[in-house]
């Protein structure tokens, strides 16, 4: 009788141990996309940023930039924290003037501890705004990246308009190819 109880106990313990060993362990990561809504600095660059300068239509000052960076860092660091205590592993962003403002953003105290890296390309956008990817270096390491152009053609019956558009597209394509040739940024 004792041997039977002992064998039954061993079977139960092995069954529980095997069931626990088969449980998959995983970690939840947050992936986010955020429109940074005209994240501009106050430096007059060759792009079309005159509206976002201290003497421009938006009266954009260093104080505005600092406040916007603080607010963005707070919001971005809190995305997904109800499901995960970590800030987003990946953040896709749009309406960004340049890499410099992204470097300033990831230095903000709310984001700095997460050690974000940047994938960014200068775009041929006439407004001077770009898109980018921020990623936590401890979870991801890009091995390559490429800038893929999106060329949009308008249906227009005017051949003069089509010729003009083609020239603009050629100029944009040249800019894109030049940026793509430089690899990861």
Report on this structure:
By secondary structure, the chain is of the alpha+beta class. The chain is 38% helix and 15% strand. The protein contains 5 helices and 4 strands. The protein has helices at residues 2-21, 62-78, 99-106, 109-112, 159-180; strands at residues 31-39, 90-96, 116-120, 130-136. Strands 1-2-4-3 form a 4-stranded mixed sheet, with helices on one face. The longest helix has 22 residues, at 159-180. The radius of gyration is 26 Å and the shape is elongated. The termini are far apart. 19% of the residues are buried.
Quick structural summary:
The chain has five helices and four strands. With 185 residues, it is of the alpha+beta class.
């Amino acid at each position: 009788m004792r041997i039977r109880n002992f064998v039954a106990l061993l079977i139960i313990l092995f069954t529980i141990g095997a069931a626990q060993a088969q449980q998959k362990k995983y970690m939840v990561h947050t992936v986010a996309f955020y429109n940074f809504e005209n994240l501009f600095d106050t430096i007059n660059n060759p792009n079309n940023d005159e509206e976002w300068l201290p003497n421009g239509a938006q009266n954009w000052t260093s104080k505005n930039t600092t406040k916007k960076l603080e607010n963005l860092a707070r919001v971005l660091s809190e995305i997904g924290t109800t499901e995960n205590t970590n800030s987003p592993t990946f953040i896709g962003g749009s309406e960004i003037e340049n890499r410099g403002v992204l470097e300033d953003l990831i230095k903000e105290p709310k984001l700095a501890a997460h050690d974000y890296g940047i994938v960014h390309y200068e775009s041929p956008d006439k407004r001077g705004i770009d898109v980018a990817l921020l990623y936590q270096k401890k979870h991801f390491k890009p091995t390559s990246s490429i800038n893929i152009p999106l060329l949009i053609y308008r249906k227009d019956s005017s051949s003069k308009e089509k010729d003009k558009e083609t020239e603009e597209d050629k100029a944009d394509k040249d800019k894109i190819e030049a940026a793509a040739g430089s690899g990861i940024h």
